[in-house]
Each structure stands twice: as structure tokens, then as C-alpha cells.
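Per your request, structure below.
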């Protein structure tokens, strides 16, 4: 009789652990719509047209900052224009050491998932085989000096790096 409760407890604990591991592996930490305990989780296969949005893979959106509403990447980090880039040229002027400090915002597809950006969003080929995201034909970048969402530490660096408004204009404050 003494072994039965211990076996039952072990089986229940193993089942709970298995359930917790499955829930953790399928939840997106960026997705604030994840289910909480007691809610039934449903899984839907995304269609071709909405696969990124359905999976929470938004690559560009907008957020508030000390400079107003700005374009941010999927992690909420501020996007920047480089004044040396030529709009609609299909190439980035940032190379070598520039890319160390100003990594491009990239997408795995030619059609990034976008929310809240009214400017035209596209891509150009990136050196690593992915696609560098463009806004109004201009490549966009992150700044390594921005550690958290809302940071705008790259604003006006060397008078050539500019935060981007949702309509695609440079913010020059």
C-alpha cells in the first residue's frame, strides 16, 4: 500500500512536467497573448498569407520613444537610416566596421511582416543571404549602443544616422 501513493505522485509529477515543457516550447516570449493556466490552448496552422503574423514574427512595428513614435524591429529596438545610403539603389552603403556598429535589420523573406508602419516596406539582398529590410527604398539598421526597447542612442551620430518615423521620414530632433 505504501508504494502506490509514491508511484501515483511520480506519475502525476512526470505528467505535469511534460505538460509544462510542451507549453514552454510552444510559447513565444514576445507574444503577450500566450495562454495562462486554466485556459485551453488551440493551435491553428497559419495560411501562406498570414504565416508570419500568426506566429508572432512581426519584423517591423512602431513604438513610443523620447523622440516620439518610431519604427522598431521585432525585438522593439529602434530602426535607423544611414544618410550615405541612396534610396532605391538596391544596396547598402554601410560595410565593414560600419556593420559591426550598425547591423542591418533583416528578414528571412522578401516580404517582412509589418504592423503600424505606413511607409513602403521592402527588402534588398543582404551579404548573409537574408534580406535587408528597407523603408521607402532605404536600408534600415539597428545601433549596438541601444540596449533596450525605447533607446535612441544612435540618433544623429556623426550627423548621418537618423531615427525613422512610421511614415518613413527621418526624425531630426
Amino acid at each position: 500500500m505504501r508504494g502506490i501513493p509514491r508511484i501515483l505522485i511520480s506519475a502525476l509529477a512526470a505528467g505535469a512536467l511534460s505538460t509544462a515543457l510542451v507549453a514552454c516550447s510552444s510559447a513565444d516570449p514576445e507574444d503577450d497573448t500566450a495562454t495562462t493556466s486554466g485556459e485551453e490552448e488551440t493551435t491553428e496552422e497559419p495560411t501562406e498569407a498570414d504565416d508570419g503574423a500568426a506566429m508572432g514574427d512581426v519584423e517591423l512595428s512602431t513604438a513610443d520613444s523620447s523622440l516620439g513614435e518610431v519604427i522598431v524591429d521585432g525585438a522593439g529596438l529602434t530602426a535607423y537610416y544611414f544618410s550615405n545610403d541612396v534610396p532605391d539603389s538596391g544596396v547598402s552603403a554601410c560595410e565593414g566596421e560600419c556593420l559591426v556598429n550598425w547591423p542591418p535589420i533583416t528578414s528571412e523573406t522578401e516580404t517582412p511582416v509589418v504592423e503600424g508602419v505606413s511607409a513602403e516596406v521592402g527588402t534588398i539582398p543582404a551579404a548573409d543571404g537574408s534580406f535587408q529590410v528597407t523603408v521607402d527604398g532605404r536600408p534600415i539598421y539597428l545601433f549596438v549602443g541601444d540596449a533596450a526597447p525605447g533607446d535612441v542612442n544612435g540618433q544623429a551620430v556623426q550627423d548621418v544616422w537618423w531615427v525613422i518615423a512610421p511614415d518613413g521620414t527621418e526624425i531630426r530632433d
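Helices lie at 3-26, 51-54, 97-101.

Regards,
D.
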